[in-house]
Amino acid sequence: MAAKGLLRFLVAFLLLVGCLGRPEPPSPAPSSAPRTVDGITAIYNFGDSISDTGNFIREGAVGMMERTGGLPYGSAIGGATGRCSDGYLMIDFLAKDLGLPLLSPYLDKGADFTHGVNFAVTGATALDTASLAKMGVNMAHTNSSLGVQLQRFKDFMASTTKSSTEMREKLASSLVMVGEIGGNDYNYAFATNRPQVNNSGLYNIGHMLTGAVESLVLVPQVVNSITSAAKELLDMGATRVVIPGNFPLGCVPSYLSTVNEQDKASYDGNGCLIGLNLFAQMHNVLLQQGIRELRRMYPSATIAYADYFTAYVQMLRSASTMGFNATSAFKACCGAGGGAYNVDMDRMCGATGTTVCARPEEYLSWDGVHLTQHSYKVMAELLYHRGLASPAPVKFPRQ
Ligand SMILES: *[C@@H]1O[C@H](CO)[C@@H](O)[C@H](O)[C@H]1NC(C)=O
Ligand SMILES: *[C@@H]1O[C@H](CO)[C@@H](O)[C@H](O)[C@H]1NC(C)=O
Ligand SMILES: *[C@@H]1O[C@H](CO)[C@@H](O)[C@H](O)[C@H]1NC(C)=O
User: Which CATH architecture describes the domain 2-318?
Assistant: First the structure.
């Protein structure tokens, strides 16, 4: 019995497998005179495809997200920019709400970085790729891990400020976003040990166990890399830091379709895989412990936890009242294969044979991995205007 229960958990769990993807360069930024909100004049962002606004496509975009530099990515905003969605991302809505221009990607050498820089790269990991490779995890499509992004930040600051005092002053009126990042470390660990379609029995059980254990072992290391990066930024003078947790992975179409679990007991009341959501929460609980520690060390800084998990679940549960079509809550708008999830990991959005839904705004998921612009707008609202990023990193005027 115990063995069967464990197996079921692992099967459910296994799904973490991967998807990464991300799109490219941004577009129109509101260029009106900056109306500063709560004293914020710049945003520095670190992360992966959830917030990349064009770095990955400038690196050459290889791997499963190679199509994010072309349509239908960006179809809601006049063309692909490297953003992994039909339109804008949470970071864009946040910048707009702050009255700032959209964040330019660091690798866009000609861009204006007066109001911040986006270092996020699609596919990026929290741990560096060499450390992951030593642990047998070899899937990365970019070497621009959190550590590499942090070094780019230091290079940027060294070249744009004359002294550490000037840098501290700049950071004192900045918002620093450390993540979401780490999701890909787990994706790659699971994907490396993905069961083979034509194998079964002990061979695949061994594979799954390896993937599950490797992913579990990664959690404290991933969390430590995130909190260590945040600590360095606080030491350099950051006063407002936002650290997002992981999404409820068990609610994401790509994972749901890969797991293809038949047992109803593996799903919760929302239709999400219990095992995968537990895994995501394990990361989130450890991350919040690390954040509490940082708050003790830097009592005068605001260090917010952005609860992506709760925001996503709230959006899922209230989908129909938020303008989504509840029948599409688990289906990718852009994809192939139909069925409950419309995800085929061998034919990602943009590939031959994939289709795009007629009304993306009715879908939570854009390509099975990433969200639609509508979802990102709802998430940003829940996080930054309705308290799910706490303590509030920015005080918006009452509307
Ligand atoms: C990452 O770095 C390694 C070692 O320098 C290199 O072999 C590999 O091609 C790089 N991968 C990517 C995606 O740039
Ligand atoms: C799996 O086995 C079936 C039947 O033997 C075969 O047709 C198919 O090509 C195999 N698939 C893979 C991925 O090897
Ligand atoms: C939601 O989608 C289903 C399936 O495409 C459709 O039949 C239904 O009319 C849609 N509901 C709304 C409110 O648009």
Answer: 3-Layer(aba) Sandwich (3.40)
